[in-house]
């Protein structure tokens, strides 16, 4: 069982690294990389989102969000505005320059997903998606519990 867990994590890690490299290569001409595409799509889907809500949405720390948004601002894909009621809060909006890029990013993402799942039957894809979603939710719950000082009863840390 121990070796199986290591193999699962190895494959997840390899997929994640390869996906980052793929997005970096495909978005190079747009002057953004894999790190910014996630934020660009979330801003598109939630125009006017605050920096704090964007961090929460992706389980990112504030520094990561700030760096990604700054890069998108520099490239002219988003703009930020202070909240009229609370000047500490910054809202993020897509610019017109970003609109064509959004379609391109979705196409890249769809192609990559299709390439990775080619040969799998639809029920296999759905089962895989469900398993990955469950693993992601469990990992988030475990980290939240550990951050709150709890330990996971299934895996004692001592």
Q: How many strand segments?
A: 3
Percentage beta strand: 5-15%
Question: Based on the structure, what is the oligomeric state of the protein chains?
Answer: single chain
Count of alpha and pi helical runs: 6
Q: What is the share of helical residues?
A: 55-70%
CATH topology: Arc Repressor Mutant, subunit A
Assign the structural class, choosing from mainly alpha, mainly beta, alpha/beta, alpha+beta, or little secondary structure: mainly alpha
InterPro entries: HTH_MarR-typ, Tscrpt_reg_MarR-type_CS, WH-like_DNA-bd_sf, WH_DNA-bd_sf
GO molecular function: DNA binding; DNA-binding transcription factor activity
Organism: Agathobaculum faecis
Keywords: DNA-binding, Transcription, Transcription regulation
Please summarize what this structure is.
With 158 residues, this protein is mostly helical. 66% of the residues lie in helices and 8% in strands. The chain has a three-stranded antiparallel β-sheet.
Keywords summarizing the entry:
single chain; 158 residues; mainly alpha; Arc Repressor Mutant, subunit A; 3-stranded antiparallel beta sheet
Q: What can you see in these coordinates?
A:
- There is one protein chain.
- The chain has helices spanning 2-27, 34-45, 51-58, 62-74, 99-117, 122-147; strands at 49-50, 78-82, 90-94.
- It is globular, with a radius of gyration of 18 Å.
- The chain has 158 residues and is mainly alpha-helical.
- The protein has one domain: Winged helix-like DNA-binding domain superfamily/Winged helix DNA-binding domain (Arc Repressor Mutant, subunit A).
- β2 and β3 (90-94) form a beta hairpin.
- It starts with a helix and ends in an 11-residue tail after the last helix.
- The model has no long low-confidence stretch (mean pLDDT 90).
- It has six helices and three strands; from the N terminus they run ααβααββαα.
- α2 crosses α4 (62-74) and α3 packs across α4.
């Amino acid at each position: 069982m121990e070796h199986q867990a290591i193999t699962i994590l190895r494959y997840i890690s390899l997929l994640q690294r390869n996906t980052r490299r793929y997005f970096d290569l495909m978005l190079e001409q747009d002057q953004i990389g894999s790190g910014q595409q996630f934020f660009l799509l979330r801003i598109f889907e939630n125009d006017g989102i605050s920096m704090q809500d964007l961090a929460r949405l992706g389980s990112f720390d504030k520094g990561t969000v700030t760096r990604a948004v700054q890069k998108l601002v520099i490239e002219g894909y988003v703009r930020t505005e202070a909240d009229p009621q609370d000047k500490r809060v910054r809202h993020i909006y897509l610019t017109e320059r970003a609109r064509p890029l959004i379609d391109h990013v979705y196409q890249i993402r769809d192609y990559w997903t299709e390439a990775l799942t080619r040969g799998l039957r639809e029920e296999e894809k759905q089962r895989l998606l469900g398993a990955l979603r469950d693993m992601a939710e469990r990992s988030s719950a475990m980290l939240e519990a550990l951050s709150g000082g709890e330990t996971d009863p299934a895996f004692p840390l001592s």
